[in-house]
Structure formats: structure tokens, C-alpha cells
Design brief:
By secondary structure, this protein is of the alpha+beta class. The chain is built from 23 helices and 15 strands.
Amino acid sequence: VVFFFLGEWRGTLIAMITIPTSLAIAILLLLPAGMTLNSGTLIGLLLSIGRLVDDTIIDIHAVERHLRMGKTPKEATIDGIAEVRLAVLASTFMIALALSPLLFCGGIVQLMFVELVWPLIFGLLASMLVSFTLTALLCANWLRPEAERRLAETRRPYCYIHTYALMPFQRGLDWLEAGYARSIQWMLRNRFWSFSRKMVIIIVGFGFYFFIGSEMMPLADVGQAYGILEMQPGTSFEETERAVFAIERIMLKHPEIHKVSTEIGTETMLESTGTYFTGYAMPAANAATFMLTLSDMSERERDIWQIIDSVQAEAMRTVPGIRRFQIKEMGSDVMASAQAPIALLIYGKEFEVLDHLGKQVEAIAKRTYGMHQVATDWTMGLPKWEVKVDPRRAQEVGLTVSEIAEQSYYALHGGLTNEFYRLPNIRQNTILVRYEPEDRATALDLENLYITTSDGRQVPLKSVATLEKRAAPTVIYHDNMRRVISVLGFYRRGEPPSMDLAMEVQMKAMAELNWPPGYGIEMRGDMTQMMDSFRRLLFGLMLSIVFMYLVLVAQFRGFMQPLQMIFSLPLELAGVFFMLWLTHQTFSTVSIMAVIVLTGMDITTAILLIDMIMRYRDRGVPRDQAVIEACPQRLRPILMTSLITIIVMIPVAFFPKTGMDAYSSVGTVVIGGLAVGTMLSLLDIPIIHTYVDDFIKIINRIFLRREWEWPVTERAGTEMPHS
């Protein structure tokens, strides 16, 4: 791409040297920052490539324009790089400042993107350094004067490449520049229609936002998943083990599953609480957890969700006694081992009412399109005997309620001793002391349980208390000091995203169910994190725009001229929303981060255009003529950088490797935003410049009572470079 656009193999060689050099410097800077090469840092370096190419191409193209004016390579290098120096500096600092809010925004957003943003900033700074040093040195020594270059083009075998490959492409670019100049002329004569067309594109583009869903983080197939199994309340360890073996036999039917690590039951508090304990899979005698390792995504025909859904569906259908069985992909982000992405929390006072409402909401979720593996996190049904102590009788025998409760509990559940059972080269075991199973099998055994008084006497439990059988929850959860039950579910690619599904189920539940006073439903899971993350990211985007505006104010020495660069933002967003809709992707935290990066890229296009227009006007060239002459000169470097960035992002957007598919929306946003934003910026930013110029004149005429004209700061007639 660089070779065909520049038409000069030496310029291409310079780009092939400076771009890897900038990348190498950026990678070296990761070392003092304590960072490693991983999916996050690699995506950041990949995003920086577009900017590295941008700086190099702008410099080389500027030097070659001055060479065509008959200057020596050193003179052309000095004049060409000086011409674009401010534009490169402004765009570099602008993007770096735009990204800086992501480094200090706090919360999960900072954890997710800190390893992506730093490499990108390092790449920008390295590119700027190389642009002003190595690129200038190589241009001054390797590029040839125009006459010498023309002579070299006639020598064999290069002449064949030049005649049959480069020249047709260069003529096509010349034709494109001429057509671009004619388009600018027409739009200057029809500014109202141009402005109307821009507004229509923005309105239509923003309309696509309502057809794309939202999610916290795009799903990623990294070849790993973990499962949570919970049998019906009261299921023994042996029954749970048999169910686990049956599920493992089902997993063996899927050749894509290479390894399965299973943990059944629970251990004491002094031993391991489980390798896969997450806070949402409480270890119990009737529970198990699975860790699944699958083959690489590129080696299998089915994705991870088709496989785990198949395992889960067959297990629920064929293995008796399962209450809850859910398998979740591990993902590639910091949310990988958290609760289910869709979680609807029902709060209230009474367990029985919560359980009833939870089952009703679960039924609604199961019949909602896009919901998968729906289950509640607990249920009623655990058999419980409630001991009601008779205070008068307990006082007569010298017992308190707490003493009766403690002795009853430890007799049934047991208690740990202060000593450990040790054998050589064998892990130590704790010693649990409790009644024999045959002495605690029935309610009669519990009634005849002996309670020891303070003076050593033993009385049966039935003499000081009565027993009542009730159902108890398997687990008790609280949220903000409220008793809660959660309905958990998952979503899949190509179907409604997590936020849309959570809102749909919640609205259906609120409309269809009878909610007693004091009971309600709220969204948790991805929704909670997503709202906080979107707030932080959008605040970071606003800060980025402010920082970029201030940099532009410093570069253009005024507050009005930078406004025309900010107008490129709605143009890029129109392309972003259209591309997300076209590829069936969602608006997520990754998308917003990509928009922040894209904003800096698109404003760089505006900077290049306006900077050249202002250089012409500084020499006294009339406004419309300056626009017509300046814009075509920036067409080639703008098209080159945008095209190369799009080519780099195509594999990320459409052919992601294992673990990188969570960041595919980065490529989609950059491709859509650059394609549409660059095209519209080339057409509309020059027209916006004329509107801003007219607005400045009106402000001066109304408020300052004077006529304002563009100040001529350079000698009239100064030679300007031409394409």
C-alpha cells in the first residue's frame, strides 16, 4: 500500500524501517512499566500501528512534495517536516491525552484497559520521536532529487514496475485528486445542500444505535469453561458422585473437550474450599464444580457455546436429581469467573415467598428467546427440624437456650477437634466428632438426643423442647441487608445481548406477576457493572474531547477554529453505529474504548486538512481558493493511513484468534468509523471551515462592531508545494 501510494521504493523502505523501530521502542517501554506481552498489550500495539504509519507517511509525503519543487533532499526534509511538525505533535498529544482518562477512571474499566492503553500511548510517543529523528535522517540521505528519480524510473527492470504498476495507480490517484477538487468546488457553491446531506447521514447513522444491543464485555471463546452442579436438596454425596460420573460420560461424547477437572462435595474450613470457588458456587455435599479445557477455537467446527449447551441440555434431560447445572465460558476479561451475565435479583422478607417468586421469574426467563441455562441460585426444600425450647423447663434443669442449640447442632453436624491426625508423607486430616449415623437418622433419634447440664446431668431433648419439621433454603443470600434470590441465565452470540434480555425478563415479571408489598426485582450481573463502566467511559470520552479541544486551541491559537475538528465526531459515530449493526455486534465497554481511540484518529484527518488550508490563507490566498487547493494535497496521506489502519484491523474484526474475539468490536468500530468518518471528513470538514469562518465574521460584526478578515502572516506570493 505504501509503495503504490508513494510511488517511490526508497520512501517505502524508509517506512519499513521506521515503523518496526517505533514498535520496538514501544515494546521496550513495557519493561519499566512492569507489563508483559498478552492479548491486551498486543491489541494496544496493533491499534498503534495505524498511528505509526500515519506519522511516517505524512513526513515522507511532505518531503517528496518539496522534492518535486526542485529542492535538494536536505532542504526538502527540513521544509517538509517543519511543515507538518505541529500537526504531528498536536495529533500525538491529542490522542495520548484522549486515552489518559482510561488510566485513572478507576473501577473495573481501569483494570480492563490499562494494559491496552499504555502500549498505545507508548507507540504514539515512540512514533513521534522516530518521526523527528530517524525518519528525517533517512529522508535527507536516501530520498533523491526529482530529476535523479525521473532518470532512475527509465532503467530496467524498475521501469517495467513503474510503467505497468506504479504509473496506472498514480494516474488513478491524480484522477481522484482532481475529482476531489471538483467535489470541493461544487460543495462550496452549494453549501446548504452539503450541510443538509451531512445532517441526514448523521441522523440515519445515529438511528442504527437503536437497533444494536448493549453488553458489558463481548463474549470470547478461549477454550475453557467452568460448570456448577447442584443436586436436589438432601441428596447424598454418593448420589451426587453418581450424577457427576454420568455427566462426565456425556462430556466424553464431545471430542472437542480435552480435559475435565471435577471437584465434588465440600471440605472443612481448615482445608481447601475448592479450586473453583467464586462466591456463587457454595461447596456442599450435593454440589460439584467442573473445569473444562477444549481444543483451540481454530481446530473445531463448533464454538464453545454450542458444546457446553449440548452437554448441559443432555445432562438435564438424562441425569435424574439435578436441580441446577450451568456451564459458563471463561472469557478473556476480568469478569471471566464472576456471576452469570444475566442476574435478576428478587428481594423480600419471607423465604417461602421469595422461592415462589423466583420460580415464577425463572419460568418467564425460560420462555424468553435468547435466555440459556436458566436457574435460581437457591431453593426451598432442604429438610429442617426447628427446635422450640421451653424456657421454663430449660430453666428448671439449669440449661439456657444457647446451650441447648449448640449441643443439638454439634451432635448432628459434628465439631472439629484441636488435634490433627498425621501420618508420614500424607496430608494431615482434621478430626470431626459427631454421633454415629444410626443415632441421628430419624426425628425420634433427635428427640432422644441427650443434653448435658452444667452439673453433669443428662436429659433428653424432648423434655426441654419440641421439634417442628420445616423446609429451609439451601443457601441464604443477602443484598444490602435484604434477603434475596437470584434468577441466573446466559446469552449467546447472534441473539439478544445481556442488557436487552435482562430488561425484557424484568419487564415481563413486573407486568405478569403479583408482587406483595416489600418485594421487588432488580437487575444485577453484567447490568450493574455495565452501567458503572459506561458512566466511567462516557465521562472519560467527555474529558478526552475537552483535552483534545485544548490541544487544538494551543495549535491554532484560538477557540473558534478547533470547533470544526470537533464536528468530525458525529461523522465517525454514524459509521460506528452502522458497522456494529451490519456485523451484528453490540455496544460495549470495548466499543466505547475504541471510539475514544477512533476520535483521535479522525480528528487527525481534520487537523491535516485545516492546517494546510490555514497555511494557504496565511499567505493571503482567498478562502475558497485555499480550500480547493489545499485539500487535494492532503488526500494521499489521509487515504494511505486510513487504508492501512483498516487493513490492520480486518483480522481483528472478522478473523480473531482464540481469546481475541472479545476485542473484535475494536476492529469493527475502527473500520466503520474510519471508512465513513474519513470519507465524510474529507468532504465536510472543508465546508465546516467556511461556516466557522463566516461565524467568526458575524461575531465580530455584531459584538465588536468591526469587519474581520483572515490575518496574512507570511509574505504574499510565497511558493506553496503542489502535488
